[in-house]
Amino acid sequence: MTLKNVIENNDTKSGRMFDILIQLLIIISLISFSIETLPNLNDGLMQFLRVIEIFTVVIFTFFILIIGLGIVAVPSGLIASALTKTEK
C-alpha cells in the first residue's frame, strides 16, 4: 500500500488508522496549547508540552509538504474554496 492510498482512502484499515492518528494529534495539540497558557506551570511540564508542540508541528508540516509537493492529490478547488468562501 502506498502513502498516497493510506492518506487518500479511509476505507482501508491503514487509511482509517491514519485519519484517527491525525485527529488525535490535532486534539493533543489543542489540549497541550491550552495547558501551556495556564500560569505558574512547573518547568518539567512546560518542557514536556514544548516537546509535544515540536512533534505535532513536524508531523503537520510533513503532511502539508506531501500535499504541497503533489505526492497526494487534493481535490480541485478544495483549498481555494475554503480560503475564498464568503458568508451570504
Shape: elongated
The low-pLDDT segments are none
What is the count of distinct domains?
A: 1
- Main sheet characteristics: none
Helix content: over 70%
Oligomer kind: single chain
Number of strand elements: 0
State mean pLDDT (0 to 100 scale): 80
Strand content: under 5%
User: What is the ordering of alpha helices and beta strands?
Assistant: HHHH
Rg from Cα: 17 Å
Describe this structure as you would to a colleague.
With 88 residues, this protein is an all-alpha fold. It has one domain. The chain is built from four helices and no strands. The longest helix has 26 residues. The model has no long low-confidence stretch (mean pLDDT 80).
Keywords:
88 residues, 72% helix, elongated
Please outline the helices and strands.
Layout: H1 3-8, H2 13-36, H3 43-68, H4 78-84
Helix pairs in contact: 2-3
Quick structural summary:
The protein is mainly α and 88 residues long. The chain is 72% helix and 0% strand.
